[in-house]
Amino acid sequence: MGFLDTLLGRTKPVPPNLDALFALPSAAITLQAAADFRPTGTGSVCFRAAEGRAFADIEHDVRDLLAMDSEAKSAVRLSKDSYGYTWLVCTRSPDEIESLVTDLHAVNSSLEAGGFGPLLLCTLVAFTDAAGRRLGLVYLYKRGTFYPFAPQTGERRDNALELQVRGALGDDLKIEPDLGRWFPVWGAPGL
Prior knowledge:
Layout: H1 3-8, H2 24-35, E1 38-47, H3 53-68, E2 75-80, E3 86-91, H4 97-116, E4 120-128, E5 134-140, E6 145-149, E7 151-152, E8 156-157, H5 159-169
Antiparallel strand pairs: 1-3, 1-4, 2-3, 4-5, 5-6, 7-8
Helix pairs in contact: 2-5, 3-4
């Protein structure tokens, strides 16, 4: 970044670090100890679907790759939200968070390697507690950071819980410092 960029307020985009997803299993242990939230076994990758054969081939290859693991008891499905984004949802046993994260990393890596990295929006891993509260840890692809999202009924958020989780996971995950970027992901599949 040059002097002129600094004067004009231009910033260099943060390169995504997909390997940051591998910090989620240890964060899950911290989250369970600090707030009694446990993984549900569901995670998803959100992206803007592109038209064309190349994207369709990658999407097909990713689904085949995840379904090929004969030892895994994972389910993979596609879902579209009301904003036009596509969610590839992976489901595993709740005690297989390491395998779930590996699946989500494979989806992200395949799309990125195919040249579709700019279409990736976020990755989400779902958690719940004994009281039935829901929580998602969201990885923002373009920022390289995580944030907690705690939806309640009626499109409301549990902001106190989100801030509690931020405090608990600050040493495990790179948390997004700008609260304005903690976008709600209403209707995210699996959450």
